C-alpha cells in the first residue's frame, strides 16, 4: 500500500507542468553602458539597479524580466561626464529619477542564446529594446546579456549633443545579473 501510494505521488508530481522559477538579483551583479565621445570610448555603470526574473527554458513564453535603473547613480568615474550625463540634456535625473526595462516572454535563439523583446522607459519615453542573453543555471544562476539603445529615440543627448558625429546614436548596454530564488 505504501509503495503504491509513493508511486502515485511520484507520478502525480511528474505530471504537473513545469513552472518558471522566480529570482531576484544577488550581489555581484552589474549593468554597464559604453559609447564614444569625439572618437574616444567611454564606459560606465548603473549602481543600485534591481532585477527580478521568472525563467524556465521549457516555457519561455511564461518568462518575465523587470529591471529598475536609478539613472542618478550612473557613473563613468569622470566627474565632468557624470554631471553632464545626469543633467537635463541627457538623463535629466532630477525629473526622471529612474528608467525601467520590462519583458514578458522570451525567445530561444539557439546555441544557448535567448532574447527578451521588452520595453525600455527612459525620460518618459517607451520604446522596444531587445536584450539577447545567455542563462547559466545552478545554485546561483547568471543572466548575461547585451542590448543596443538608440539614445536619440529617448531624447538622451538632445540639443547640441544630438550630433551623432560627436556621440554615436547607438549605446551598448551589457549586464551580468547573478540571481537567487525569490522569497
UniProtKB/TrEMBL annotation:
Pfam families assigned: YceI
SUPFAM superfamilies, A to Z: YceI-like
Signal peptide: 1-20
Residue stretches making up the Lipid/polyisoprenoid-binding YceI-like domain: 22-180
Annotated keywords: Signal
Keyword Signal: yes
InterPro entries: Lipid/polyisoprenoid-bd_YceI, TTHA0802/YceI-like_sf
Protein's name in the database: YceI family protein
